[in-house]
Write a structure and sequence with these properties.
With 91 residues, the chain is of the alpha/beta class. 24% of the residues lie in helices and 29% in strands. It is built from three helices and five strands. The radius of gyration is 12 Å and the shape is globular.
């Protein structure tokens, strides 16, 4: 099965209704994030997406597409994760 959840589509400025860039793809138990803007973790919890992320793909390096990665890594560490998190993006 394949589930796609838009976690944020508000460009660089969040609004009450929309968060900054983030997209979760859940496929056969694997969770992939495409962009991880600030507030993505909260959106994941809101929509029932597990924080057990397998990889993060950054489409480009504007801050609104990656500022949530540091917080996500910290949360995973607090949850005891020891597996590496793959983060892919442009050079």
């Amino acid at each position: 099965s394949l589930t796609i959840r838009f976690l944020g589509t508000a460009a660089s400025r969040p609004t009450i209704e929309r968060n900054v860039s983030g997209l979760a793809v859940v496929r056969e138990g694997e969770t992939l994030l495409f962009d991880c803007g600030e507030g993505t973790q909260r959106q994941m919890m809101r929509y029932g997406i597990t924080l057990e992320v397998d990889a993060v793909f950054l489409t480009h390096l504007h801050a609104d597409h990656y500022l949530g990665v540091a917080g996500l890594v910290r949360t995973l560490g607090l949850q005891g994760r020891t597996a590496p998190l793959r983060v892919w993006g442009p050079r």
